[in-house]
Write a structure and sequence with these properties.
The protein has about 240 residues and is an alpha/beta fold. Helix content is about 25%, strand content about 25%. The longest helix has 11 residues.
């Protein structure tokens, strides 16, 4: 099955407060922070659009009016709408509201603050090849701290720990069956501590292991790192997809 460009609605979670990068989010939601002159959200949408997926619904909340006002200015040939999912709604609640708003059986979804060169068709292929209601993309977390190897009281090695030493974490870039909405209790439930553990217990949660580039934007330092990377041609989140 050729799944590249398969017509699927993409849910972009863009309603959080972004308190850890408050230098940038006093006046706008975190996905609207500019990276090389364009909102992070635009860079994220390009990841999907470059692979033929361009039907987006943006789940807004905190300062959502900034996103609603920005959408008409888009010049790309994408189908983009925004759904106000409430300022205090958690990720699970936002996903449920978006699923309930559209009749699709299968959705793509991801967080509005992480970029990666994820091969969307490969995630879809794994989802369709396995039973389950959700497939998440597992990524290596960025190695942020100096790694210290200690023997007794002596440091035998000091240096950067590689990403491959860090295990796997949830990097978003989901495939969702609409039945997942039945596992979300309501607006106040985070997807990560509500539906996902329940699905794992019932053997309904799959993971696609992504070994390529992935970078969140949780801090000002990470924003500056993405600024530098955005000037590369191609940017690493668009390379090899």
């Amino acid at each position: 099955m050729n799944l590249r460009g398969y017509d699927l609605k993409i849910i972009l979670l863009a309603g959080g407060l972004g308190t850890r990068i408050s230098e940038e989010t006093d006046t706008k939601p975190k996905p609207m922070v500019l990276i090389d002159g364009k909102p992070l959200l635009w860079h994220l949408m390009r990841i999907y659009a470059s692979q033929g997926f361009n039907d987006f619904v943006i789940a807004t909340g905190y300062k959502g009016e900034v996103i609603h006002e920005w959408i008409p200015s888009l010049q790309e040939d994408w189908n983009v709408s925004a759904l106000d999912t409430g300022e205090n709604t958690q990720t699970g609640g936002r996903i449920k509201k978006c699923i309930d708003a559209f009749p699709d059986e299968i959705f793509l979804a991801t967080y509005g603050d992480g970029l990666g060169n994820v091969k969307v068709a490969s995630v879809l292929s794994l989802h369709y090849a396995n039973s389950g209601l959700v497939t998440l993309t597992a990524v290596r977390p960025p190695a942020r701290f100096g790694y210290v190897k200690i023997d007794g009281e002596k440091v035998h090695h000091f240096g950067e720990k590689s990403q491959s030493d860090e295990g796997w974490i949830n990097g978003g870039f989901f495939v969702l069956d609409r039945k997942v909405a039945n596992y979300i209790a309501g607006d106040s439930e985070p997807f990560e501590t509500g539906a996902l553990p329940k699905l794992a217990t019932e053997n309904l949660l799959n993971a696609y292991k992504h070994e390529g580039f992935w970078q969140p934007m949780d801090t000002l330092r990470e924003k500056l790192d993405l600024e530098k990377l955005a000037k590369l041609s191609p940017a690493p989140w668009l390379a090899n997809i």
